[in-house]
Amino acid sequence: xxxxLTTRGKIILSFILIVVVLVLCAAGYFAWQKxxxxxxxxxxAMLLTTQQATDKNVLxxxxxxxxxxxxxxxxxxxxxxxxxVQPINYFTIQAPDVQQAAQQxxxxxxxxxxxxxxxxxEKTDNTIVTPNxxxxxxxxxxxxxxxxxxYRNWEWxxxxxxxxxDRYIPVELQRNFSxxxxxxxxxxxxxxxxxxxxxxxxxxxxxxxxx
Length: 211
Hints:
Elements: H1 2-43, E1 45-47, H2 50-53, H3 56-62, H4 67-81, E2 89-94, H5 98-110, H6 118-121, E3 126-136, E4 140-148, E5 154-158, E6 161-163, E7 166-176, E8 181-189, E9 195-202
Parallel strand pairs: 1-3
Antiparallel strand pairs: 2-4, 3-4, 5-7, 6-7, 7-8, 8-9
Helix pairs in contact: 3-4
């Protein structure tokens, strides 16, 4: 009788564990789906007025930016509007009004129009389209495109490592300088022999100019 109850209890426990795992997997899937949908939405070109594009609060809310990134982006766009720096692209569009000119550019970016410059349709965290002032009396309007990547300036990681019979815990700290370059230091703790690594990471589109 005791063995039967024990077996039955194991079956019930196994069933409960399977249900818990399925629930966690489902929750993880829906969380990832929501994140992906949000990321895809943020990557769509967003049309902002010249005033909105330089308002850190608007950028923070509409682009889901943290305060520091929103402030830096607002300053950069303000400098571009003043002619001190250049945005990713300028387009001169013929349209009934400046708002429709900007909307045309945003629609072409979202459609991945192959006739646009590669920088305009490059995948980034955010794409901002802002209308500029009327350039000529022939209904041609300037439209500026800004690309934004939210660099994580510092990253850290911890894990588990094994070399032969020696087990250790790798602890890494990485400093990102841009989306293409970073320097990291890794320390191996807990093993019979202490060790570490210092690495420079560089992103490249092609490896040895081949792939």
